[in-house]
Amino acid sequence: MLTRKQHELLKFIQVRLEESGISPSFEEMKEALDLKSKSGVHRLISALEERGFIRRLPNRARALEILRQPEDVTSKPAAKAAVPAGQDALAALKQPERTPEPANDVIEIPLHGRIAAGVPIEALEGQSMLPVPAALLGSGEHYALEVSGDSMVEAGILDGDFALIRRTNTARDGEIVVALVRGEEATLKYLQRDGAMVRLVPANAAYEPQVYGPDEIEVQGKLAGLLRRYH
Amino acid sequence: MLTRKQHELLKFIQVRLEESGISPSFEEMKEALDLKSKSGVHRLISALEERGFIRRLPNRARALEILRQPEDVTSKPAAKAAVPAGQDALAALKQPERTPEPANDVIEIPLHGRIAAGVPIEALEGQSMLPVPAALLGSGEHYALEVSGDSMVEAGILDGDFALIRRTNTARDGEIVVALVRGEEATLKYLQRDGAMVRLVPANAAYEPQVYGPDEIEVQGKLAGLLRRYH
DNA sequence: TTAATTGTTCTCTCATTGTTCACAGGCAGA
DNA sequence: TCTGCCTGTGAACAATGAGAGAACAATTAA
Questions:
Q1: Closest by alpha carbon to A165, among A184, A180, A150, A151?
Q2: NCBIfam families annotated for this entry (chains A, B) (predicted)?
Q3: Mean pLDDT of A123-137
Q4: Which residues make up the CATH 1.10.10.10 domain(s) of chain B?
Q5: Which CATH number fits domain B4-83: 1.10.10.10, 1.20.1540.10, 1.10.390.10, 3.40.50.2020?
Q6: Is A141 in contact with A168 (CB distance < 8 Å)?
Q7: pLDDT in tens, A183-210
Q8: What stretch(es) of chain A map to CATH 1.10.10.10?
Q9: Strand D: which residues 4-43 of B lie within 7 A (CB)?
């Protein structure tokens, strides 16, 4: 799950937090890992974040938080050892013991409009904000889209749902992404790579997968959460 | 998670609360941190609030509350016992005061456990709290359940989703409800009345609708919203 | 009502910290 | 070999953290 360096950094952060309660700065992490540039640290931090081991507030100094321990925990298993693998993310929601569930663990993310409406989402910037429990998101930058259409019904994504999207340019096979097609149309689909080609696969037998060249598709984010309202 | 100053201030507030039970004023915190202006304190307080370590009532003097301890806890367990988690949220809701719900439109609702697990949900009272955007809920009392199983997949409700339930005894035909069957088992299903009988209809062709007598079923709430998290 | 206490904001200023880029080497698998 | 991934470096740049001082607003006590 982790590379040697990522693991080393995670350990360091953990020790620091337990000893002093103060997050290390990038500079300090740089020293600890014996690097000569902070950008390396930056990449490691991003990797740890992406894998769900830490959480952070963007653009805030010393704002790291450990969500999960590496598998081989040798030093201090006690408190967290009981957490079954895979459930870690949700553990944050369920464990009142360790985290008393802060009342304002809420993030406001911008609501950019409807998706699958044939308009690049960037065009609809800066409308209303949607408050979302931080536990639903990882960290990183997020935004929300209202889902339009039924092309993802079989993935449990219905017309009118709010999709919470984490902004990213990269995605792995099988993930649900917001893809901008030929700079024109944004859609929410499963992503599949087929050699150099990219396939956008709907979750609805009534629709066909579409195949595009690598230059025709731009990933704008991946699905991180979903909100639905019943009336 | 914290910078040196933030940590120092949090410690100070904590000690003060434990010793005297009275929140320090900005002036006192200013002195304690050896500052010459209160605005610095203000910024630190905001940072602590943003990170979920403290909570405060806006425009109220000496209204600080510690929600979370820094990792390196050296002196603590006392403070914790005095402030049961969750209590604060309810207090905030009940106070007919000027500030019904501090600033944001977020409501904390209790997470009662998993549904369709064969256990009456009432038995699982008082676990953790889940912050939810108020916009997702209507009025009334709500709680959350984690969905277990795939009996409602065709309604876009997947295993592991969080169902937001509005507590009510009544429901109309065709609504999705939490139904307690024979006082034993709680399930999430479509409700249909058939004369005096009540039918619970799953949204999955692999399952059969179940028919019960009016005395066998107790409606505990209706589905008001849904949260899902992708990893 | 007045006065005292306390919290909120603003503007400046400087230091600290985080972000991003371009460029490059090493390594494993196709 | 080519490609993708991890790693390393350096530097420019952007943003936040922190402190001061003052005016102002809100709440509480007299």
A1: A180
A2: lexA
A3: 61
A4: 4-83
A5: 1.10.10.10
A6: no
A7: 667 788 888 887 778 888 888 887 888 8
A8: 4-94
A9: 4-6, 33, 35-40, 43
A139 has a pLDDT exceeding 70: no
Using the beta-carbon criterion (under 8 Å), do B72 and A131 form an inter-chain contact?
no
Summarize pLDDT for B96-114 with one digit per residue, the tens: 222 222 334 566 677 776 7
Question: In angstroms, rounded to a whole number, what is the distance separating the alpha carbons of residues A225 and B228?
Answer: 5
Write the CA distances from B207 to A195, A203, B114, B182, integer angstroms.
40, 22, 19, 20
Mutate to test the interface with B, among A16, A17, A175, A228 (most CBs of B within 10 A): A228
The pLDDT-based confidence of A116 (bands split at 50, 70, 90) is low
The answer to whether the CB of A17 falls within 8 A of the CB of B1 is yes
pLDDT at B226: 92
How many Å from the N-terminal Cα to the C-terminal Cα in chain A? Answer: 42
3-state secondary structure of B123: helix
CATH architecture label of A4-94: Orthogonal Bundle (1.10)
CA distance A217 to chain B (A): 22
Tokens in use for A21? 């309660």
CATH tag for B106-227 (out of 3.40.30.10, 2.60.40.10, 2.10.109.10, 3.30.830.10): 2.10.109.10
Reduced to 3 states, what is the DSSP secondary structure of residue B157?
coil
Location of each CATH 2.10.109.10 domain in chain B = 106-227
- Mean pLDDT, chain A, rounded, equals 72
Is residue A75 part of the annotated active site? The answer reads no
| Enclosing H/E stretch for A20 | helix A4-20
- B224: pLDDT strictly greater than 80: yes
Angstrom distance, A164 CA to D16 C1': 27
Beta strand segments in B150-196, E: 162-167, 176-181, 185-194
Mean pLDDT of B76-84: 33
Sorted by sequence, the CB contacts under 8 Å of residue B145 that are 6+ apart come out as: B111, B112, B113, B114, B115, B121, B162, B163, B165, B178, B188
A17 and A45 Cβ atoms separated by less than 8 Å: no
**Is A128 considered catalytic here?**
no
Tell whether the model's pLDDT for residue B181 goes beyond 70. Answer: yes
